[in-house]
Structure formats: C-alpha cells, structure tokens
Amino acid sequence: MPIYAYRCDECGFAKDVLQKVSDPVLTECPSCGKSAFKKQLTAAGFQLKGTGWYATDFRGGPAPSKGTATGPADSATPAAAPAAAPATPAPPAKTSTD
Questions:
Q1: How many CB atoms sit inside 10 A of residue 11's CB?
Q2: Helix, strand, or coil (residue 2)
Q3: Residue 34 is assigned to a structural domain of this protein
Q4: Residues ≥6 apart with Cβ < 8 Å to 16
Q5: Residue 54 bridge partners (DSSP)
Q6: What pLDDT digit, counting tens, does each position of 50-71 carry?
Q7: How far is CA 85 from the centre of its chain?
Q8: At 14, phi and psi to the nearest 5?
Q9: Residue 21, domain member (yes or no)
Q10: Rg (CA), the chain
Q11: Which regions of the chain are under pLDDT 70?
Q12: What is the DSSP letter of 36?
C-alpha cells in the first residue's frame, strides 16, 4: 500500500497516511476539522534507469553486464591468468651399488 502525504490549507497540519489506491481521498483535516485537507505531490522513493534496474540498487557501483561477472569480453585489459602451482622436485634416481 502506498503512503500519501496530506496537508491542510487552513491550519498547515501535515500527515502521511497509508492508504490503498482504491481508498477515497481524505478531505477533512483531523486537526481543525475543516475540509481543506489535500493530498500533496511527492517524489517517488525510487528512480528507474533504462536497463530494468532501479537506480537505488547496487549503490557500490554499476551492475555487472549480462553474460559475464567481470565486464565485457572486449575489454582492453586481459583477464589475469591463474597462478601456476610450484613444481615438485623429482625423486632422486636410484643407483646400483654392486
């Protein structure tokens, strides 16, 4: 359910009201009783971007691109190769002592 901001034009009383979209608009001020209580125009709590995500998501940086976790495949910097495991020394060769 959305939260609507109301303000009375007569006494200045303001209140946020949790209402269904189908509920009637409130007109009577709970403070002074006059019918000057009006719904205010407020900014939305989220912003839409063009890619289908909310602008308020991923505050640490942009979301990874589709298909890869690190970015586009045609990036100028190559991906780091995994480190090679250290070589194990071969066991000493057996010599015969006859």
A1: 14
A2: coil
A3: yes
A4: 3, 4, 5, 6
A5: 48
A6: 666 655 666 565 556 665 555 4
A7: 40
A8: -125, 145
A9: yes
A10: 33
A11: 45-98
A12: -
Report how far residue 7's alpha carbon sits from residue 14's, in angstroms, rounded to the nearest whole number.
Answer: 4
Tell me the β-bridge partners of 14: 7
Pick from 2, 81, 97, 89: nearest CA to 40: 2
Q: In terms of Cα–Cα distance, which of 13, 10, 5 is closest to 30? A: 13
The token pair that represents 76 in the structure block = 């100028």
Specify the pLDDT at position 71: 47
Q: Residue 14 belongs to what domain range? A: 3-39
Q: Does 53 reside within a domain?
A: no
Nearest to 33 by CA among 5, 8, 4: 8
- CB neighbourhood size of 49 (10 A): 12
Query: Structurally, how many domains does the chain consist of?
Result: 1
Residue that has been written with the tokens 């480190």 in this structure:
83
Asked whether residue 20 is assigned to any structural domain, the reply reads yes
